[in-house]
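Morning. Coffee machine broken again, so started the prediction first thing and wrote up yesterday's gels while waiting. Chain of 103 residues, entered below exactly as on the submission form.
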Amino acid sequence: MPAHGRSGQAERAARSRYGSSWRRANPTFAGDTIYAYSEILQKAELPGRSDCGALRVRLVGLKDVPATEAGFPLKVSKDGREAYEKSVVLDLDYWLLIPRRNR
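Came back before lunch.
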């Protein structure tokens, strides 16, 4: 059996199962100030793993608007379809594998 054994196989499977998606919503230019905030969207158990779990995280990048002042929806209606608000430059949705604390 390879050195990484079953644990390595499970970790690779978890990484491939929990992919990410992202969208570069609007352009940025020299001189823009980028702020960001993140939020936890979901948590999940990993089958066969008691040493770690998964968190689904959303990271949003904002141009020239501090996250504490954002207060607007990420998407707005534009020409009859949904589009990102002009200050949103990045919308990243991804999963993190997090070790569990020993209790």
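The beta strands are 21-24, 34-45, 52-63, 75-78, 81-84, 88-99. Going to sketch it on the whiteboard this afternoon.
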